[in-house]
Amino acid sequence: MNLTGIIGYPVTPFSQDNKQIDLDKLGRVIDVLLEAKVDAIAALGSAGEAAYLSEAEWRQVAEYTVQHVAGKVPVIIGIAELTTAQAVNYAQHAHQIGADMIMLSPFSYYKLSEAEIFQHYDTVASASPLPIMIYNNPATCGVDMSPAFMLSMVERIPTASMIKESTGDIQRMHKIHTLSDGKVPFFNGCNHMALEALNAGASGWCTAAPGLIGDKPKQLFDAIKQGENEKAQALFYQQYEFLEFIVSSGLAAAVKSGLALQGMDAGEPRKPLLPLNEQEQQRLQGMLDGLA
Amino acid sequence: MNLTGIIGYPVTPFSQDNKQIDLDKLGRVIDVLLEAKVDAIAALGSAGEAAYLSEAEWRQVAEYTVQHVAGKVPVIIGIAELTTAQAVNYAQHAHQIGADMIMLSPFSYYKLSEAEIFQHYDTVASASPLPIMIYNNPATCGVDMSPAFMLSMVERIPTASMIKESTGDIQRMHKIHTLSDGKVPFFNGCNHMALEALNAGASGWCTAAPGLIGDKPKQLFDAIKQGENEKAQALFYQQYEFLEFIVSSGLAAAVKSGLALQGMDAGEPRKPLLPLNEQEQQRLQGMLDGLA
Amino acid sequence: MNLTGIIGYPVTPFSQDNKQIDLDKLGRVIDVLLEAKVDAIAALGSAGEAAYLSEAEWRQVAEYTVQHVAGKVPVIIGIAELTTAQAVNYAQHAHQIGADMIMLSPFSYYKLSEAEIFQHYDTVASASPLPIMIYNNPATCGVDMSPAFMLSMVERIPTASMIKESTGDIQRMHKIHTLSDGKVPFFNGCNHMALEALNAGASGWCTAAPGLIGDKPKQLFDAIKQGENEKAQALFYQQYEFLEFIVSSGLAAAVKSGLALQGMDAGEPRKPLLPLNEQEQQRLQGMLDGLA
Amino acid sequence: MNLTGIIGYPVTPFSQDNKQIDLDKLGRVIDVLLEAKVDAIAALGSAGEAAYLSEAEWRQVAEYTVQHVAGKVPVIIGIAELTTAQAVNYAQHAHQIGADMIMLSPFSYYKLSEAEIFQHYDTVASASPLPIMIYNNPATCGVDMSPAFMLSMVERIPTASMIKESTGDIQRMHKIHTLSDGKVPFFNGCNHMALEALNAGASGWCTAAPGLIGDKPKQLFDAIKQGENEKAQALFYQQYEFLEFIVSSGLAAAVKSGLALQGMDAGEPRKPLLPLNEQEQQRLQGMLDGLA
């Protein structure tokens, strides 16, 4: 599987009372991403509020996404569970429904040791034949994995073949590249570092941004690949404030509010998460106007 | 409710296959704490692996603990859930089964704003009449609450009346004391800072240590209250390495391994958590021997 | 030398044009500290703006302080120089003029390795027979020394016999006590952690506070030693806001402004340091009133 | 003055006994940089051990550098002094001897407020007509200046026209670019982030690396400007380990040891700084061999 480009993250639309998933709207959200020329769809990531779904809801979103994408692009299923048993459970499900890949991160209450994290990945890998993207995001998952440790898992676990790095520290990418002699593909998960990550050799950019700003991320990716550096810089700075905003105000809340501003109601994020307040909505509207 | 002294935290014993809770053993674990002269029992805290239990298991532990303690000391129920809906659900259950208090912390995937945290506490408080101890532990819960913010919740939410601080920063306690004119009781949740916290005015010390070292924590508490400062210092430094060890190696893993070393099998922690390795077990054995 | 209690830090009064040292006023500043019952005087520390003095001024302050104190209490000379050569130079001078001890810290532009720091201490120790207090204050000196490393210097360098810890991390003191079996005296350099440091076994408290609030620090020290814990706590919280303020607003600026408010003009700190602004002065006045 | 490209930093060679500056060798060090096609020479930076020189030595290096460069490229003089008076003194000297620009950073013992830092820059700017590059390097100077604050100085101080950023946080550069609408030139001072900084719009790269690896940095600069992104990435990763090494092991020590390995004795760094140990020298030799 030679994944490259923009990996789009759909939000999970809820019903008015926040209690159910609105699958029709999820379909429209996915369509928006496909129209924005994403090269893959990653369901049940941070933007998808996977951590706030019941098991039944989680399965529903996974299944629906695979069916709706219908092979147009690969589908990656995010798994970030507190217990290894539940991660195994979900990984098996992802395979059964025909997903193409798992994006697996530890999720911690207790800080996990490398031995514990390795065991987690290894157990999940043994339970499902799907390729695994190792995903490091200490800001949400509460545990940080070093480049050297992640690469040791790539070496030891046959299906673990890629890395997504979201710390926002460009040196991590330098380390991944250097320590693996450029052989292990890595992806950028830090929106407002996309320019640098792609220049540093990232195979792609994992982002919820196309849900609101169309193919601008894809244009940036293409400009860099074609050596149009002035254009790339201009495209990046055009998106920069927006990219930083959706991260700092919470991806799910920001994208859902942005979709509403664009006329597509995707419901509110699930409590305790709150939608953007009025001031934030106005700021977002201004940025979207500037990018339209 | 005038809570003071040592608040003991039971671990949650699992069956051999890690899949079920062994209630008989939980009873014995609670008895050990009561024999260690704890002034309250806090079920479903970090040490109790609450984050790794299914809903059914969580309810089982809560109910059994209240029944087994049987009014000898107050029972506090820890609640640290990702969604507000589930926290409400558990808070109602805690009240129904006759618990005395809730120890409520946010648990985050997305970083939560103060508005989101306030809403979480306020909604839970509205759903259950039990007194609430606001619990701040960014290392496990992924979100940090300042003294000023926690005190504002004490002021605005009638049943929120106490604070448990586990950052390990003694200045937080100074702030709580100073900003509240000494009127809001606070508890120490950082084992290896117990001496200072109690000297700085903490009403009590929340700890799993009595499960392994009997009434040593209670002796320390008493020495400080009686102004026996040399004795307090000696008692603290006697326990210090042990206290730091059980935190740094993971409370559940450390206490369960320690219980096994003392002849009481409480099973293993739930995966991805691992039991202490052999070297750690030997180190723990040495410390327990020194404290016996 | 059995140093214990309160070690007082004089500020360095400058002339109106900031260009010369006003020795008469320095004498009065020292007298204020002696009246506040300090157990030693430490010249040329942070409060004394040692880093901002020329070599001639530095020598002038050192000599005058030893003469003025005239053996009433021990005099400690602070040395924090960028080059080892200059530190040696000053250490020899401290001995020649009859000071009792050196308080030696590294001062870094480049981060220093432990080998570099050790060499620095060892070379200075070889050049002067005075006892050395190892002083760790990364916030000002730009380099952090671990308890284990400082204790290794105590072991290897015969005249290095004490430690001053100013990180504000109480665990450092626990480590010093534990790793040295309570045998290496340590002093607290973090004003707003004085209560805890003394309870954790610190031999004394290094502070500029007596310059403005008289023997309140000494009273706190005595209360703890006598096991009057409620009194100690009350004394500490009475001073707490003040202690935190003089640290956060800069010791030299704060103490000089406070002295002016109390009618003793000690000049301004040396540029780029600025005196307290009006708002800060009013806040300080309020705190001094409350402590009078 | 339209500065762009590679700004080279000479080390300061000392005599065998570490007590004097060897000007002949300084000349050779400067020649090496000029042969490496640097676009400017920056004397008395971190690499030049400015912080460890006496005033007489400092003046000697400044004067000699201007004379030796003799207008081939612009000469920038670094000034990082603890007192504003000394910074003024040096800034006047830099102008008198015919330097082209000052690179000015605060250097702190006490943490400085923005008011103090502004006053420092403003006073120096009033004392010398030379253009000022605002230099932010908290790791050495002990104080951090935000992009917004530095840009406010550019706006308020007529001669302050450029920024050098050395935190290693790429977001700082994004902020400088965004907040100034791309109008304030900024330079990269973090060697192992050169690829990203230049892609993010940095006008140049301040580095001591050409002293050891010739025009490799210049080649990287050119490749990026010409949109040869694969070549740029290859050139960067070729240098990466070396760039990280000279920073982490101390620029002055690393470059001096490297020069010695290449047959040009530049003496040792000044104590407490130590030369590279044997192991480090071997590692450096290996990297230099790989880059030759």
Automatic annotation (TrEMBL), chains A, B, C, D:
Belongs to the DapA family. The lineage of its organism: Bacteria, Pseudomonadati, Pseudomonadota, Gammaproteobacteria, Oceanospirillales. The keyword Lyase applies. This is Dihydrodipicolinate synthase family protein. GO terms for molecular function: 4-hydroxy-tetrahydrodipicolinate synthase activity. SMART domains: DHDPS. It comes from Marinobacterium marinum. Keywords: Lyase. The active site is at Y135 (proton donor/acceptor), K164 (schiff-base intermediate with substrate). GO terms for cellular component: cytosol.
